[in-house]
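Structure tokens please, single chain.
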Amino acid sequence: MKLWILLFFCYLNCFCQNILVKDVTKFVGIDIYENCYYLQNDALHKSSLKNDYKNIEYGTPDVIDISNPLQILLLYKFFNKVILLDNQLSFINEFDVPIGTELIANASKDKIWIYDNIKMILKLYNFKTQKTEISSIPIKEKILQLKGNLNQAIIINSNNQLTKYNYLARKEATINIQNNLLPISLNNTYIIKENILHHKNNKIIDTPNEIESFEVINKKLYFFKKNNIYTLSIYKN
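Here you go.
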């Protein structure tokens, strides 16, 4: 009987996923208000808005940071430019970043984290003064992902390691993530391992195969697969 109940709930989980958006180029993430951001036809979209943001001059942004919905960052690497948008996807400002800027992330007002791919260092950059305030020591491994806030920067490197740096750009802790998939926000309390969503080492729910990226907000799993964004309710014990 228990086996049949388990199979029944697995069946329900498979068919309770809903398509949120179709034909998406990239799933950017979900903000704290459950707005979904994505790239489609070279434009940035936000699910709660009818308008979008498209920059004809610079093209498709290489990096988008929505961790602060009031200050959305778009990096255009070829031009060494960052665009600031507000919560309506309206233009606020644009500024130059140093040559070699590969990744960016929000830090605080007037400041962003930068990964310099030439010098292989992490920087705290003041875009008002156009000056680097703090730099890390050189990082041996290539950085693939970067997220940040006022107190820290979090990176994923090419060796499948997550490392946290403090506000002085000094390394604090490193953990191996192996082949586990982390949320876009790099909140490592959630991982997808062997097609199962875990929260703090507890199994939460089975997930579909071939998920490319995901986020968890307010007991909902949002995931990107084959150019579509899906949502699925999850229930933690």
